[in-house]
Amino acid sequence: MRTLRLTFLLPLLATAACTPAAGPGETPVSGGTVTQDAATRTTPVVPGRPARVFVYAALGEACKPLPPPSVRVVAPPTQGDVTFRDGQPTTIVSAGAAACAGRAATGTGVYYTARAGAAGSDRFTVEAQATDGTRQSRNFEVRIEP
After folding, report:
1. What predicted TM-score, i.e. pTM, was given to this entire model?
2. Which of the residues 94, 109, 142, 146 has an alpha carbon 20 to 30 A from that of 55?
3. Rounded CA gap, 123 and 140, in Å?
4. What mean pLDDT do residues 126-132 have?
5. Are the C-beta atoms of residues 90 and 79 closer than 8 Å to each other?
């Protein structure tokens, strides 16, 4: 399993993306507002092999775990499939509350699997919604190599 390093917080909804991917800074939002962010996985994916590209985890005051956010694909990839796995461990790198950075968390992993014969790059968008209605939409790009 690859180590993840990009993180974001939604009422304190934390996320992490695959190393060595680095995305723009994330901004916490509330009240049902949607923010949009982008992340590029710099480690290539191999057709037929699931690759974790991100982890969403919810944290509250004092970095206490909250119920996991609901996660859905809003723009599917053209050369592969996106799946979600609960209970994925990660380390918070950055978050709306700096005190949570460096903390271990468990969340919902976003996995991309390229179909047989896929090559080049693929893009998709995922949205996470915290239990308070706060949402974040994130665009992903993956590079596919046989």
Report:
1. 0.74
2. 146
3. 6
4. 90
5. no
